[in-house]
Design a protein that fits this description.
Blueprint: E1 3-7, H1 8-17, E2 19-23, E3 26-29, E4 31-36, H2 43-53, E5 58-61, H3 65-78, E6 84-89, H4 93-97, H5 99-107, E7 112-118, E8 152-155, H6 161-173, E9 181-187, H7 188-191, E10 194-198, E11 205-208, H8 216-227, E12 232-236, H9 238-242, H10 246-256, E13 260-262, E14 277-280, H11 287-295, E15 298-302, H12 308-311, E16 322-327, H13 330-333, E17 339-342, H14 345-355, H15 366-382, H16 403-411, H17 417-427, E18 433-436, H18 441-448, E19 457-459, H19 468-480, E20 486-491, H20 492-497, H21 501-507, E21 513-518, H22 523-531, H23 558-565, E22 568-572, H24 575-585, E23 592-597, H25 622-635
Parallel strand pairs: 2-11, 4-5, 4-6, 6-7, 7-9, 8-9, 12-13, 12-15, 13-14, 15-16, 16-17, 18-19, 18-20, 20-21, 21-23, 22-23
Antiparallel strand pairs: 1-10, 2-3
């Protein structure tokens, strides 16, 4: 057998360069490049290997390990899992920083390959710098933390182990049913150790996306249940987009006349104004989808995980509602006591459609009426105007609603969040991509955002990762190219947590647009806090007084922060200023940040959904007691599993 002597790290890089993915006959290199922050745990091993072997890999210098890994997640998500970036860091805190991104990837079924350095396999120099010593087991390092958030985990303690580890890693990364984060931990000494690797290990290897057809028995059972339904509802999940089943989903809905709602991951599968489109469903859903969902007698979930936000903590659907689930994952297909159709959506939808020939639901005017009511509400949300008068109340009126007026006074600002979203949505080009992740914006955007083209909405809400937004915008930009714009939507809380890859965007001449909604608070959590009977505690960005954090709102000039990095910054307090800034930003070639001062409590409402949170059973506050009673009232109507 022909062999070649390479270090473990050199062999890994050569292997990465020769992995391809075949999707419906279209073959592409699967690993586009590597994000890295070199350190003593990976610089002389993997770093040397990338210099010597990485001829076809794009190498990007990250600024924060979590940030560069989140960029890789957003890239793979926008590419519909057909291409990835690998991400490497040193051992210790650098590796630990990537754990969050692995949670993001695995929760959302997005392929992510992380390659952290590790402590020495030989243990001779132990304890090395950044090593956490566990007295009950010397085999544990920081990298064991990845086990809980990865689909596949391995530690390469001998160079020859790389071969079986890589095969298992890429089996996982290219499996649509079980993909997620993969961690290959690399001890520092083993990275540089050599082995005579078989040349066949480095041959061009083509992984094929297997499109699994549905079993005939499952299809017949599903079709029988649908035919017996009078008011069925389709739920479009992210699996429809990843399977590239956009056309099949459209044809199925139109052929059957079944209306559809979308999840955060499924949004932008079809245009928002399709005659059968109801919009977002669940806790962050709109009135149209939630009204129809509440009356549905059967739900056909396509490529959805049925998170608590989609199902309103399993409360949204009536007790007798049945479920049919089309999903490549057997695990996901069994949720909600569904009839499971374990199959690729692109294959299964046409198969099921054939069995439903002639079927029509019993809807008359319900769909159009619900849509009309929601569009009237959208007009209201698009045109909200703050007025400094005693009778003005924000959208979310609670015990802490005076925050809006105080904010307007402290920052001389009066924009409403929903008005800004509506304006930006209207001004963006059809093919521009909107990206977001956490806080109140995902709820407002799932309700209000109106995609006019496919795959123009990249929302990370499986893990709801604050800090994904700016880093993710860089990943999206790498995916869509320089001819299209990407707009990151984030709050000041998310921006303060992680915006380091803004520097990478400047460094790489990648124009991203950051729409920073500054309400000087963790607004979403403040709403949750006071809405369930608590007093405000550590959720507003106020100065300290003798009474606590109850002074003036902090007025931070985020535009100047962006300008210091080399971006173009705009400080915005009025809609006119925003419109002028948006137009000027189109002319820029550097990254852009809009520092938009928006009033607290000007988010959208809940529109008939319930979300289970841990209300307190015993409290001295009557507001807490009332919230707990409301919790019990909803819980009795929720499905148990």
């Amino acid at each position: 057998m022909d062999t070649i002597r390479l270090t473990m790290a050199q062999a890994l890089v050569r292997f990465l360069e020769n992995q391809y993915l075949d999707v419906d006959g279209q073959e592409n290199r699967f690993v586009r490049g590597v994000f890295m922050i070199p350190g003593h745990g990976n610089v002389v091993g993997l770093g040397q290997a990338l210099s010597q072997e990485g001829h076809h890999l794009e190498i990007y210098q990250g600024k924060n390990e979590q940030g560069m890994a989140q960029a890789a997640v957003a890239f793979a998500k926008q590419m519909k899992r057909k291409q990835i970036f690998a991400v490497t860091s040193s051992v210790g805190p650098g590796a630990a920083n990537m754990v969050t991104a692995c949670g993001t990837a695995t929760s959302n079924n997005i392929p992510l390959l992380v390659l952290p350095g590790d402590t020495y396999a030989c243990r001779q120099p132990d304890p090395v710098l950044q090593q956490v010593e566990q007295i009950h087991s010397l085999s544990i390092s920081t990298n064991d933390a990845f086990k809980a958030v990865c689909r596949y985990w391995d530690r390469i303690v001998r160079p020859e182990q790389l071969m079986s580890a890589c095969i298992s890693a890429f089996r996982t990364l290219t499996d649509p049913a079980n993909t997620g984060a993969v961690c290959l931990a690399m001890p520092q000494d083993v990275e540089g150790e050599a082995y005579d690797y078989p040349v066949t290990f480095f041959r061009k290897r083509v992984w094929r996306l297997e499109r699994r057809p549905a079993e005939e028995a499952a299809l017949k059972e599903a079709a029988a249940a649908i035919k017996a339904a009078k008011k069925p509802l389709l739920i479009c999940g992210g699996g429809v987009r990843y399977a590239e089943a956009h056309d099949e989903f459209r044809h199925f809905a139109e052929a059957t006349g079944i209306p559809f709602a979308d999840t955060q991951a499924g949004k932008s599968t079809l245009e928002w104004d399709h005659p059968l489109a109801l919009g977002g469903v669940g806790v962050t859903g709109c009135s149209a989808a939630n009204e129809i969902a509440r009356e549905a007698d059967l739900v056909i979930g396509v490529g959805t995980r049925y998170t608590d936000f989609t199902t309103a903590s399993k409360w949204l659907f009536q007790d007798g509602c049945q479920f049919v689930n089309i999903n490549v994952s057997a695990f996901q297909s069994l949720k909600m006591e569904a009839i499971p159709v374990v199959a690729d959506a692109k294959i299964a939808l046409p198969q099921l459609e054939k069995l439903l020939e002639g079927y029509k639901p019993a809807y008359t005017h319900e769909i159009s009426d619900a849509q009309a009511r929601w569009r009237e509400e959208l007009k209201r949300l698009d045109n909200l105007v703050f007025a400094d008068r005693p009778d003005w109340t924000p959208i979310i009126n609670d015990a802490n609603a005076d925050s809006a007026k105080r904010f307007a006074k402290d920052l001389n600002a009066g924009l409403c969040q929903t008005t800004v979203l509506g304006a930006l949505n209207a001004w963006m080009a059809d093919t521009d991509v909107a990206i977001g992740a956490a806080g109140s914006l995902p709820g407002d955007m799932q309700r209000m955002w109106r995609p006019r083209a496919q795959d123009t909405y990249n929302m990370e809400y499986g893990y709801s990762t604050m800090g994904y937004e700016v880093a993710g915008a860089l990943g999206v930009k790498l995916a869509i190219g320089d001819q299209r714009e990407v707009y990151a939507f984030c709050g000041d809380g998310s921006f303060n947590m992680l915006h380091s890859e803004l520097i990478t965007a400047v460094q790489e001449h990648k124009k991203i647009n950051v729409c920073l909604f500054d309400n000087a608070s963790f607004g979403c959590i403040n709403n949750l806090q006071v809405g369930h009977g608590n007093v405000t505690l550590c959720t507003e960005l106020r100065s300290r007084t003798q009474e606590g954090l109850s002074g003036s709102f902090l007025d931070i000039d985020y535009a100047k922060i962006a300008e210091a990095y080399g971006c173009k910054g705009y400080r915005v307090r009025t809609l006119e200023e925003l419109q002028a800034a948006f137009a000027d930003a189109k002319k820029q070639t550097v990254p852009v940040l809009f520092d938009i001062k928006v009033l607290p409590k000007t988010m959208t409402d809940g529109y008939g959904a319930w979300w289970r949170v841990g209300d307190t059973e015993v409290s001295q506050r009557a507001e807490n007691t009332a919230a707990y009673q409301d919790h019990l009232a909803h819980l009795k109507d929720a499905r148990k599993y």
